[in-house]
Design goal:
- The complex is a heterodimer of chains A (about 900) and B (about 575).
- Chain A is about 55% helix and about 5% strand.
- Chain B has about 575 residues and is of the alpha+beta class.
- The longest helix of chain B has about 30 residues.
- The chains are: A alpha+beta (about 900), B alpha+beta (about 575).
Chain lengths: ~900, ~575
């Protein structure tokens, strides 16, 4: 190939910026950025006011900004000498997809000693954070309040259970409970019933003729069967058309916790040191849940139906396709927003008939938010003042007024929030419910039930292992309703059944007990570990490790010089070229040494520690790896993740095929390219909502197409011949189809690959094709002998990146499936995330991460080694 | 030049006519359909109203110009209840209809048709009300009744047609504009109730236009008629005195509660108060057949906050003209509501942009966009520079330890980011860069492994001769990188530009942990934080699909534009072929 000389070349390329100019411009930009950055950093010193950083306050209502304004200018919050405000409240939102289980933002801020001063915090997480010393005990502040303080917090004004939920002491110790937050609002779960459907079924009170919601478990079960309709009447396997009731968390919010309490059980012993998840009462509760599912075609059918359902306006309860649900009172808002004239009934959740007969009253369980102060908050005095101010009655009511305005401005019905302060709540109900004749009657009755149920509200035990307990109780439910242990139970009990000593009911109880005890085991282990604090000797001292890191980082440079010296006489390397290489690689080398390498190094150290980020770390040697070997989830998630690797070649093939079409000179090329790239652009939220709808077993477009294909004559014929009936899969709801579904989704979204293929296709010189066509090669020959070899570096790139990305697959599980059904989409990175950020086991998560790292590294090395045989590079 | 263009156009014509090219177009169009469908779906959801979302139809309804109010609404045919045999349903439906119709007519006769400045078509009204009443009543009937005799069924059915249900059906089948309540709030957050329901009819006046304020069923009904969509607007006027203890400058907000029809006519307000005239610049649509409040607010502290802007701002437009000034005392005030008719086009336009408008006003949109743009520009510039620069060392230069370094480069991608997040955070915190955008864009200048790897793969395919020639010519390595290599890798640079644009535009985790101050949020986080982008909403009350999809659209469009611009660089001819000669 003929190449012109440099000088001429420079002259030729008109419009190409000369190098010196590019360098000067680059430097100028750098200087500008540096100045701007320095300006941006000047945030710490404002106008001399003390900052109070307040997170997630915007969730209290739109008027919070006005109220915070008011707080700043209160006379008592002014400097007595100058008369200027003392405080500046910095609002920030704690934006998390799931405020309980996903605390990266707060965790990082606390670990970095830049925590907010006040946070609106889910009370459920208080045990977890307070147990690790991350929250401030507010009791001293409460005790210090003067009796005539206008914004004095009176604890007796609060519902006792809500206060209990913010109180914590280390399980097994004696002494006072600390109060770690001031409750704001409360919620609870109640039974919602569609009154019209009860009327249609004749489930009315014979005396009044009014619909009569179920009061006992047995009634609820009967009602559910009565109200459920199938696609083919009477055929439970044909799919559900209308659901009577299910304990699924997609059709309400009941969970095993609730049924367990209803049956008189609990998840933790009274002293909160023992997991009692497998108690007989809990077996009964799980058995009841399984029965509810089995009555109407089994869990998979119900789940397939439930997954089609959406939040907001598309709530199935509004659409009339769900007869009853146990849901939080917040879902009243949904009815108010979208279908205010709906005829519904709210009643206490049913309990077993025998317990009702024994005089137990119906119960419910609640939760809600509280204002908390991190123990490392920098402005504790100001923070307390803000908490006090926001908890005062007048301000609470004012916040509600803002919410009301907000609702009414968009034409929606306002419902007062249920407040943890019962004085405020009673007031609001009187004002906006009792004295508001325009509020439809079902809502008015609902508030009566809410007020009646307040004294019978239970709450989840405040425990440092609360989140793990929660997740494992969900896992137990999952295993139970999927009958994961049915086979094992059958074999174990075979002898007893044969001897007539056990009924099928006993076998099922035994089976569910297996599920519960399997799920309970890790929680008990974790709890034991937490309650036995490690000694000071094992505490980690970080300082020496920075030196170790420095030495490790310096070594390669020494080695490089040494290699150069050793090989100098063979003229393999040129000093000038090495210097140039160091210059070119310098951005990456500096970046690696300063920002990337350190975290990697320290995460490796974490693998030998017990470290929860919030409290000091301790050396534990190989403990994490030993645990890892015995953790069944590791194997399960590893297999799930490995399965997903099949999507890499598939997605590559599809995107390469499209790119080949898009690499021609055809009309409308820009349009085609943009269209094909669209899936890669779709925001994750929209894309996952869309795919959940596409995969919907009943109404989803995919199954509708599949079914219509099955009914084509040739397919009918094949089915007839094979004596089978093809059925459409349940996709995301089926254990065997969930992973393929995610593979399909990945192929659809392979648009990002198109860009890289297109870039690669451009690097193939035209002459090669011209020469080939002169030689008479057909287009397949050209593709096979020119395109593929010339593209091989890109194929390698896509393959390596694809494998790395797939091994860390996370979003699909996080957003769409949460690891279900029955852990079929529990991916390795998702498990790791849960360990690190939900259960605060950063050491264990790091051990998991490093195992993954080793596996991926081995795979990559293998690919690189194989690549020498097929990848075509220019000689170097 | 001209010749070339001719050749090119001849070429493309030939391409288009070839059978193979028809095949290609067909294949492409099919894939375009598959790939574009979601986008279309996202768009159509974003222009729907809440009620249309419930209908489960793909396309939103089209509105037409509404000359009169009250008017008869379109009501869907009553649907067959799930448990009823179709045959039985078809047989009995006419009887059910007739029965309902008779009851409705009786009620109508006793109570009279709704008062109005024009005639409401009574027959159409009765038919609409019938459909509504039948649908509501059959939903309440025991399913076993349907298998019993007609007389049993009809007795039960008649029992459901009470005065209350009949009256409601008649009222609900009309679109109407009612005035419900008027309130004033002062800056010290006192609430003053000025007017209620029927009081409007006597206190408010129709200043111009063909309209009347009528007392009806305990409330005030505004009945109007527009001759055409360019007819003069309708002006309502209300003179009032500010409540005791409140001065003109204490006004925080003024709210008028109405029950809207679905005409999508536009309301503007003028307030003469304390000798000044205040005007709204933005209109409010009268729409969706529901209760809503019109909030008017002069500039206050609220404007400085970043709360959702749900109100309409009153702008000071000068002194009130003397001729119109009724206010002799500084406490007298006049509120005028001007209702402009919306033509078919205007009404549909209003409906289409409604959710976008809500998304815009729910967050400080432009502030977030500016932050995002800053971030994106820096990230793209950094990625382009660092990838092109560093890759040269890996692809073209020979140095000891290169392959090990390359492996380390790849290895940095292999450790899940979750476990390096906290130590990474501590480093940036140590640099005092918490609560700045720096931790998000600075790393781009040090190169990301992904882009460096991609660029390395491209550079490795460039023939050696290029640099050898450059070296002979006396260019040093920086020069030969800049003059020889860089022009060759344009397609990969374009790919990196697109990918890093998309990455930083949608960047979520970085801003989430590093930014404390809401005013520094980029759009990705800003929209999310206000419940607009959530998948799993823990507060379903603020979950609003239509606005969420509007927000998603606003996030997506810039990426599409950028892609469309940059994909031009994926064309043949920019690479080696251009080097010939």
């Amino acid at each position: 190939m003929q190449v012109c000389c440099g000088r001429k070349f420079r002259g030729r390329s008109r419009g190409y910026l000369p190098l010196w100019m590019a360098v000067v411009l680059g430097l100028l930009v750098l200087v500008a950025i540096a100045i701007w950055t320095a300006h941006a950093m000047s945030d710490e010193t404002t106008d001399g006011r003390q900052q109070i950083v307040f997170w997630d306050g915007d969730q209290l209502g739109p008027d919070i900004y006005a109220i915070v304004n008011q707080f700043e200018s209160l006379p008592e919050n002014r400097d007595p000498r100058t008369g200027k405000p003392k405080y500046k409240v910095m609002m920030g939102s704690a934006v998390t997809p799931d405020p309980v289980g996903d605390a990266q933002r707060l965790l990082c801020a606390v670990a970095g000693k830049v925590p907010p001063d006040v946070v609106r915090f889910d009370r459920f997480a208080i045990g977890e954070w307070a147990g690790r010393g991350a929250l401030e005990n507010l009791k001293p502040f409460l005790n210090k309040q003067s009796p005539n303080d206008p914004s004095r917090i009176e604890l007796q004004d609060y519902y006792q259970w809500a206060l209990n939920e913010t109180s914590y002491r280390q399980p097994g110790t004696q002494g006072d409970f600390g109060i770690y937050g001031i409750p704001i609002d409360v919620d609870m779960r109640l039974l919602f019933t569609n009154a019209d459907l009860l009327r249609q079924e004749g489930l009315v009170n014979p005396k009044t003729g009014q619909p009569q919601p179920p009061r006992t478990w047995e009634e609820l079960r009967r009602y559910s069967s009565l109200l459920t309709r199938y696609n083919i009447p009477g055929d439970k396997n044909s799919g559900i058309k209308r659901l009577g009731f299910s304990p699924s968390n997609n059709t309400g919010n009941s969970w095993l916790y609730m049924y367990s309490w209803e049956a008189g059980g609990q998840m933790l012993s009274d002293d909160r040191r023992h997991v009692t998840m497998d108690s007989p009462q809990n077996v009964r509760a799980l058995h009841y849940m399984a029965d509810l599912y089995d009555d109407i075609g089994g869990f998979a059918q119900v789940d397939a139906f439930a997954q089609t359902l959406q939040a907001g306006a598309l709530d199935p309860f509004l659409m009339g396709s769900l007869g009853m649900k146990i849901d939080g009172i917040w879902s009243m808002e949904i009815i108010a927003d979208w279908k205010r004239n709906m005829d519904f009934i709210i009643s206490p959740p049913p309990i077993p008939a025998d317990r009702l007969a024994a005089g137990y009253s119906p119960i419910t369980w609640g939760g809600g938010y509280a204002l908390v102060m991190p123990s490392t908050a920098r402005n504790k005095e100001g923070a307390w003042k803000l908490i006090q101010y926001l908890s005062s009655k007048a301000i609470m009511e004012q916040l509600e007024m803002g919410r009301r305005e907000d609702k009414e401005a968009s034409g929606k019905l306002y419902l007062p929030k249920s407040m943890a302060n019962h004085v405020v709540f009673d007031d609001l109900v009187k004002k906006y419910v009792d004295n508001n004749p325009t509020l439809p009657a079902p809502f008015r009755n609902a508030y009566k039930v809410v007020q009646e149920m307040m004294p019978h509200t239970l709450y989840r035990p405040v425990s440092p292992a609360g989140q793990l307990l929660w997740n494992q109780h969900v896992a137990a439910t999952d295993m139970g309703v999927h009958h994961a242990f049915a086979e094992q139970a059958k074999t174990d009990m075979a002898a007893k059944v044969a001897a007539g000593k056990a009924t099928p009911n006993d076998v099922e109880n035994y089976e569910l007990h297996l599920a519960l005890s399997t799920a309970a085991k890790p929680v008990q282990e974790y709890l034991d570990e937490l309650l036995k604090p490690l000694t000071k000797e094992t505490q980690v001292r970080w300082a020496p490790w920075f030196w170790v890191y420095g030495i490790i980082v310096a070594t390669p440079f020494v080695l490089m010089v040494w290699i150069y010296r050793a090989k100098r006489h063979r003229h393999i390397y040129k000093a000038k070229e090495i210097w140039a290489a160091m210059l070119f690689a310098s951005p990456w080398i500096i970046g690696f040494v300063v920002f990337v390498g350190g975290p990697i190094f320290f995460s490796m150290l974490y693998t030998f520690m017990r470290y929860d980020v919030l409290s000091p770390a301790h050396w534990v040697g190989m403990e994490n790896f030993v645990k890892l070997v015995h953790d069944p989830y590791v194997y399960k998630s590893m297999w799930n993740t490995a399965f997903m690797v099949i999507r890499v070649p598939l997605a590559m093939a599809v995107s390469l095929a499209i790119s080949l079409l898009l690499n021609r000179s055809i009309r409308g090329l820009g349009f085609y390219r943009t269209a094909c790239y669209m899936p890669a652009i779709m925001p994750v939220v929209a894309a996952s909502w869309l795919w959940m709808w596409i995969f919907n077993p009943d109404q989803g477009i995919l199954n509708q197409v599949l079914l219509s294909i099955y009914h084509l004559p040739p397919m009918e014929w094949v089915q007839h011949l094979l004596h089978v009936q093809f059925s459409a899969p349940l996709w995301l709801q089926s254990e065997s189809w969930a992973k393929p579904a995610i593979v399909i989704m990945g192929i659809w979204g392979s648009g990002a690959g198109i860009i890289i293929w297109l870039a690669g296709l451009q690097s193939i010189p035209d002459q090669l094709y011209e020469a080939a066509s002169i030689d008479g090669a057909n287009s397949f020959g050209q593709f096979w002998n020119i395109t593929i070899p010339m593209l091989s570096p890109y194929i390698l790139f896509n393959f390596i990146i694809g494998v790395i990305g797939t091994m860390q697959i996370f979003n699909e599980a996080f957003v769409m499936t949460q690891g279900g059904p029955n852990n079929a989409t529990l991916f390795y990175a998702y498990d790791l995330f849960r360990q690190g950020f939900q259960y605060f086991r950063m050491g264990y998560a790091s051990a998991l991460a490093w195992i993954l790292f080793v596996v991926v590294l081995a795979l990559t090395l293998l690919q690189l080694w194989l690549s020498t045989k097929w990848v075509h590079y220019e000689r170097t | 030049m001209k010749e070339m263009r001719e050749k090119k156009s001849r070429n493309s014509r030939r391409w288009f006519l070839r059978p193979s090219s028809i095949v290609i177009h067909t294949v492409l169009l099919i894939s375009v359909f598959l790939f574009l469908f979601p986008f279309f779906w996202m768009y159509s959801t974003s222009v729907k109203t809440d009620e249309e979302l419930l209908d489960n139809e793909i396309f939103p309804h089209v509105l037409t110009f509404r000359p009169d109010s009250p008017y008869v609404r379109d009501v869907a045919e009553p649907a067959r209840p799930m448990d009823v045999e179709p045959k039985r349903w078809d047989e009995i439906l006419p009887t059910l209809r007739d029965t309902a119709h008779i009851e409705l007519a009786k009620y109508q006769h006793a109570h009279g048709e709704i008062p109005s400045v024009h005639d409401v078509n009574t027959e159409a009204h009765l038919n609409s009300a019938t459909d509504l009443l039948v649908a509501q009543s059959v939903a309440k009937m025991d399913r076993r009744l349907w298998t019993q005799s007609d007389s049993t069924l009809l007795t039960a059915y008649r029992g459901l047609l009470t005065d209350q249900t009949v009256g409601n059906a008649l009222a609900d089948s009309l679109g109407k504009l009612q005035l419900l309540a008027m309130q004033i709030r002062s800056l010290d957050l006192h609430v003053y109730n000025l007017l209620d329901n029927e009081q409007f009819a006597s206190a408010w006046k129709v200043e111009s236009g063909d309209a009347k304020l009528l007392k009806w069923g305990g409330s005030t009904l505004l009945s109007y008629h527009f001759g055409s969509s360019w007819d003069k607007p309708l002006v309502l006027r209300y003179d009032f005195t500010l409540p005791d203890g409140m001065r003109a400058e204490d006004l925080y907000k003024l709210s008028v509660g109405i029950r809207a029809d679905n005409s999508w006519h536009r309301v503007y307000a003028t307030l003469d108060m304390g000798g000044n005239e205040w005007k709204t610049k933005r209109c409010i649509y009268v729409a969706q057949n529901r209760e809503m409040s019109l909030l008017f607010q002069p500039p206050t502290f609220d404007d400085q906050t970043i709360r959702p802007k749900i109100w309409t701002t009153l702008h000071k437009s000068g002194k009130a003209p003397l001729s119109q000034q009724t206010a002799h005392s500084p406490k007298d005030a006049t509120l005028r509501l001007t209702i402009y008719p919306s033509s078919t086009l205007r009404a549909n336009f209003g409906k289409m942009i409604q959710n976008y408008d809500r998304a815009f006003r729910a967050v400080p949109f432009w502030m977030y966009t500016l932050n995002s743009m800053l971030l994106v520009i820096l990230c793209v510039a950094g990625s382009l520079f660092s990838a092109a620069f560093v890759a040269y060392a890996f692809a073209r230069l020979n140095w000891p330890g290169r392959s090990v370094a390359f492996l380390i480069l790849l290895a940095t991608m292999m450790l899940p980011s979750q476990v390096t997040m906290v130590p990474g955070f501590l480093i940036w915190r140590q640099l005092h860069w918490y609560n700045t955008l720096n931790p998000i864009w600075v790393p781009a200048f040090f190169g990301s492994a992904f882009f460096i790897f991609l660029m390395t793969q491209h550079m490795r395919t460039i023939p050696r001769e290029l640099e050898e020639a450059a070296r002979l010519d006396g260019l040093n390595s920086v020069q030969s990188w800049y003059y020889m290599i860089l022009p060759q890798v344009t397609p990969t640079l374009a790919a990196i530009a697109i990918l890093s644009f998309m990455g930083s535009w949608n960047e979520f985790m970085g801003p989430l942990i590093y930014l404390r101050d809401q005013t520094r949020f980029p759009l990705s986080l800003g929209l999310y934080g206000l419940g607009l982008m959530r998948t799993v909403s823990t507060d379903p009350e603020d979950f609003n699909w239509t606005v969420v999809m509007a927000g998603n659209m606003l996030m997506t469009i810039p990426v599409i534009v950028v892609f469309f611009i940059f994909q031009r660089y994926f064309v043949r001819g920019m690479t080696l072929t251009g080097m010939k000669g």
